[in-house]
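Onboarding guide, step 5: your first structure request.
Type a short instruction followed by the sequence, for example:

Predict the 3D structure of this protein.
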Amino acid sequence: MNILMCNERFLFRFGMDRTLILLGQHLTTIGHRVSAMAHQGDRAVLEGLFSRVIDVPVQVDDYLRLDELTAAWLETAWNECFAHAAPPEVVVVGGWPFFSAIPFLRRTGAAVVFVDFGAVPLDGYSGGALAVQEQVRRLRRRYLGEASLVIAISEFIARSQSRIDVGDKVPVLPVLLGADHLETPTWSADRVSPGRSRGELDRRLAGRRTVLALGRWEPGCYKNSEAAFEVLDRLRADVPDAALLILDEPAKVTIPGGLRDAVFPIGYPDDAALVDLMRRVDLGISVSRWEGFNLPLAEMQWLGRPALAFDLAAHPEVVVHPWYLCRDTAEMAAKASAVLLDRGLDAAAGREASARFRDRFRWRRFTETCADAFAGLVRETSRPVAPGRQPAVIVDVTNATRDPANPGVIRVSRRVGRELQRHVRPLFVVWDDALATYVLPTLAEYRQLGQFNGPEIVDGAPVSDPAFRTLLTELPGWRGPGPTWLLLTETLSAQRAPGVVRFARAHGLALAAIFYDAIPVLHPEWCNEEIVGHHAQYMRSLSGCDVLLPISHFSGTCLTEFWKQEGLHGGLVRPHLLPGEFGGGPRATEVRAPSGDEVKILCVSTLEPRKNHLGLVRACLHMQERFPTLAWSLTMVGNRYAGASDIIETIEALAATNPRIRWLGVVDDAELVRRYRDATFTVYPSFIEGFGMPILESLWHGRPCICSRENALGELASGGGCLPTDVRDEQALADAIHRLATDRGLLATLTEEAVQRKITTWNEYVEGLLSILAINEGGIMADVTPITQNARDWSDIVYPGCLRENWQMHDSERLALTALLARRRPRCAIEIGTYQGGSLSLLSQYCEMVFSIDIDPDIPQKLRHLNNVSFLTGPSSAVLPLLFKELDANGIPVEFILIDADHSAEGVRGDIERVLEYVPRTPLLVAAHDSFNPDCRQGMLEARWSRSPYVQWVDLDLVPGRLVENGGPFHRQLWGGLALAYLSPDRRVRDLELQRSADGMFQAMNEYAQRAR
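The system replies with structure tokens like these:
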């Protein structure tokens, strides 16, 4: 991927800057191309880590305007910055001063990821510094909801800020940072600043016990640096020779008179010197009152040195062991004394905690999690598909007609089938291995399919005789009158999958499949031999599908990466996340406190190795040993798993000897609802999932869930209501369970998040699925014919979801318009003159909101499926000025106008001149074409182009197969001209920007033309 990282500074002595640099460095290491953009930075360091370093030259007297001016500069300079390099697919924003630039960055077509370090507390700030912090908060609330993803550096940041600022608009993914960067120091003082001799300092500290104040020295604010003096003063009562080291210049630190012989400001050591210092000091202390992560604390702990911090903010997530958390300075001084006098944490416990910390806090984990999220954003198609007429759908329910239980995949198959019945008349079929074709279900199979809220048996449903199966192809009218989809809602066996693909191709069916996970390929050790043996072949066969619907971004990435490794090219991969609705009970709409004093823990999951039931039970038993007075119970619900008899036997044996542990096996939905409602919280201890439906089902019932923070489980946990932990670490899992069992405040907060969280229903999921499969004139699979005939029209690829008849443009002009929209991604667009709606349907694909102006009163009815289009009926001379006025009044800038010149010369000339009179709020692109009409061409020629000092026009005469940029104002020989104008907000000509827009248009059009061929 091409990744651009934006931040005000990239200076190693600041934690936020260092984090972004390390992320960029590790992304480069694993093969991505990473550029940096900043106002200032350690260039000697950056040029060795990034492929490019782009300086932002914006300098202002009023620092509060830096954010808006940076956004303005970025829009002007963007094309120049990437004139000789591929534009970024992902832009990583660290915060100020790039908040206001987020909407523009999205319009470039890049995914924008905001790494949330949090807005710091305002205590102690005043004047300009306070104004800046307040501005940051305003900008966060205004712009974070327009990002593609927010990555919070801790669950504390995600809970206290990220999710509050973005609401349900943007997913939030908490990912803890790494600490192992100290193994390979990057910032060297001889490359950035003059080195310092430590000889004199070493002589003065000889024989003394030393304490390092972690992090930069900032008294008078949330950093609370001056509190280190209070800790030292108390500490010296027990340890008189204690000395405090401060990371600042001596001239900048005011030391209390009684401590001057014990406080040593040592400046800003480089990486190597700081590592050496941390290893030599006896203790580190962090007196900060707020930290989103606390990188210096993590660094100290990585080196195996003791470090104390206050029990607040993100410290409980980062500290190596709870013993090192302190309530106040008095406790910190007491624990510091204990450490320095060798009376601290038990050595064995300390070594065990340190080993766990070093295993977890690695940059590779942080980087790979981020990279996976980035890849999911890049691969996700963002263009909406017009719903239109609902498609004919045949659903493969082979396994759901036979399985008496209701595991995850079967639950999806049944619920999708039932919800489909609300919208279309699906035809359910079963694959017959002996006949190698589809047959109709028997009545008994229908009844099994209908269990657990599966499809209903409707009157007239075709049924097979058990003794003599009815072939699908023998059923009259089994295919719809138009294109028909075969939908695979289940995982297929290796033997069945190739036959299913051949069947679809032989009968001209469009083929779509829900893809669940690649776990048997990624982790064969956790699956039985039968599944492991066929799953890779199944994933290969899926490349024969037209549309793949992974149930999470994680699963989608796994599938495409597998295809890439296998040298395969599949169809459209469009992640479509599963819903969280539980079919057997209503959504919890209010917070319900658990009843009684007993902590009732519920786990809902099939008993298979990767689900980690034994780890959960051992974690509960560890908790029981440490806290014998805590009243708790663990109830497990789930089916047996073939090949995991040892797990079942162990669970049964433990349940027989410990009355707190119960395994209920398979229960019906009514019983499961009762268990959810009776639970205090749930635990889903699985190591890896393609989705993790029990998490959302728990939240559906208003019960928080403890789960992993990795893979797709981390995606779900990031939305709120969950307490993520390292489920592989039984002690960490035990700590999380005990924390949620005893911290009523945390339980109440997570319960509130669970109740308030937006959870998709099954009906919404199926509506989205049908939208993806829409097959009318505006659908993505129009005019489907058997692929064996190789008859798909190239326009299906270039214009998915668009009306493609009566555009009145040459193909090359349509490509130009498509390229322009794909490059600019306008938020608000206007089309004047809709005609048959071809170009309007294209605008609706690429723009957030579109306004259509036409005198034809039937247009709104004919094109009502374009959900993001507002139709205004009447003469453009009256409607357009009123629309401009209303949009300006509501602060909505117009970014693109298409004049579809299909009427009189006078009308076209009037439309163009009304647009020229408009002063846009933001750079505005205007395109016009003559619709093969000589009157329209005449009107375009007569308009007052030359008398508009803030307009430049490029006339593109685009003949199929050839691109020619004309020298004159318009080419007078051929009809079919497309003209492009750039309107500047300040009414001044922007020749360079215009030329870049035109050049970019040509470049993108060539790319589209190559794809079409």
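Each response can be followed by summary notes, for example: The chain has a mean pLDDT of 82.
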